[in-house]
Write a structure and sequence with these properties.
The chain has helices at residues 3-15, 48-56, 75-87, 98-107, 119-122, 138-158, 173-178, 201-208, and strands at residues 164-168, 192-197, 215-217, 228-231, 237-239. It has a 5-stranded mixed beta sheet, covered by helices on one side. By secondary structure, the protein is of the alpha+beta class. The longest helix has 21 residues, at 138-158. The chain starts with a helix and ends in a 6-residue tail after the last strand. 34% of the residues lie in helices and 9% in strands.
Length: 245
């Protein structure tokens, strides 16, 4: 017992007063079911924990930008962290610490998907199951789908957290052929999602420009008058003529 408490206890005993003491222990660090960060990250850091952070802030690169999930915390990652922090009312210093991690933990399920999207939604658009049948390995395809979902989560939040409906995600090669998809479709790689929802298709296309989507095709582009296509390619190819894009 600390010295001051011993002295107080002695005086209490002399006065016939009972003193109750309580030992307060530090709260344990948060352990998340998906991934737990163990250090504060800032510009200049590198490693797998940086890459995991980049996946989750990939939807905050600013207009026309893209965040590389390369494990190197550079100026673009710092700026994306700042935008993520601002979007959720956190102190926007661009340093990923406990407050930033707590918000990420609250936004993700134990399988690392953001809470408003699932792997099932991004799976084979022809009703298949799994991530095989495309040009990449199933693991690589699934990893692409995960980043696609985090960028969709950023878009959803920017649009008032109202639902977005994915009508087509990953397609195997046979599936893509059956629906008449382009031979080099981003759907084959797990990098694409076709959307509808409570917002207009033009609203989806316009807002997507701020969330790292390199491929944006919507109303006015052939075959896209009933949905907005978004994909996470890292060069910009946008066309939604009816929306002014």
């Amino acid at each position: 017992m600390p010295r001051i408490l011993c002295i107080l206890a002695l005086f209490a005993a002399m006065l016939g007063v009972t003193v109750t003491t309580q030992v307060v222990t530090a709260t344990k660090a948060h352990a998340d079911g998906c991934y737990t960060w163990s250090r504060t990250l800032s510009e200049g850091a590198s490693g797998e924990d940086v890459r995991q952070l980049q996946i989750r802030v990939a939807g905050y690169p600013a207009y026309g930008g893209h965040i590389a999930a390369d494990g190197a915390f550079g100026p673009a990652t710092k700026a994306a962290v700042q935008r993520f922090q601002s979007a959720y009312g956190l102190g926007a210093d661009g340093i990923a610490g406990s407050a930033t991690y707590s918000k990420i933990y609250a936004l993700q399920d134990d399988d690392c998907t953001p809470i408003h999207f699932t792997y099932a939604e991004l799976d084979d658009g022809c009703g298949g199951s799994g991530w095989d049948g495309g040009p990449l390995s199933p693991a690589a395809t699934k990893a692409n789908a995960l980043q696609t979902m985090w960028q969709l989560e950023a878009l959803r939040h920017a649009l008032g957290d109202q639902p977005l409906t994915v009508t087509s995600g990953f397609r195997s090669i046979p599936c893509n052929n059956s629906v008449g998809g382009a031979s080099n479709s981003q759907h084959l790689y797990g990098r694409a999602a076709d959307l509808v929802g409570v917002h207009s298709l033009c609203t989806l296309a316009k807002q997507a420009r701020y969330h790292g989507f390199g491929g944006i095709f919507g109303p006015g582009y052939p075959g896209h008058n009933d949905h907005t296509h978004l994909d996470i390619r890292t060069s910009n190819s946008w066309s939604a003529p009816s929306c002014g894009i």
